[in-house]
Amino acid sequence: MQNDRGQISTNSEERQLENFRSVFYAQYPKLYGFCLRNLYNPIDAEDVVQETFAAAWENRGKIDLSKNFNAYLLSIAKNKIYDLIRQKFVLDRHRNRISESMQEQLSEEDRLLWNDLVNLMFSSMEQLPDRQREILLLRAQGFSNPEIAERLGLSIRTIENHYSRALATIRTIMGPKATLVFSLFFLDIF
Q1: CA 55 to CA 144: how far, in whole Å?
Q2: Based on the number of CB atoms within 10 Å of its own CB, is 162 exposed (0-12), middle (13-18) or buried (19 or more)?
Q3: Which residues contact 60 (CB under 8 A, 6 or more apart)?
Q4: Which pTM value belongs to this model?
Q5: Segment 45-64, tens digit of pLDDT
């Protein structure tokens, strides 16, 4: 429903949800196909589609329906794809830096063990929610909690909570190996 300014009407939450659900079912296949063509990974594509629709729902009161809604969704998805690719690039860059630094100092057997640990750590990080992973990567780049909070527009306490949860999740996944690998990851070896 549109009001006289071309925005989604806020008459009732049920009506909005019903309208949004119909848009979701109509647009989902196209948006998923777009994401899959750009990411080559069905799980990542699904995540981006879900985040896109979540962002559209959160901004439903600001959407101008006199403009192309499909283009609006594609624009959100494209930005989310860029963010995801950027995050994966940062993960790969850190993985390579850690590996290169440690490779010089280890025997062949130790190198294999080290590579397994680093791969386990990064696969653990990939299982984190996007916000926790983003904060963890910013901390790895040397940003302080206040700097991250300012950069992301969140409170320092929120940053601390996300960081603590991320570390706890990685410790759970990796077990006792996490302390060694993670302490080396956050040392200034870059």
Answers
A1: 27
A2: buried
A3: 8, 16, 20
A4: 0.45
A5: 898 999 999 988 888 878 77
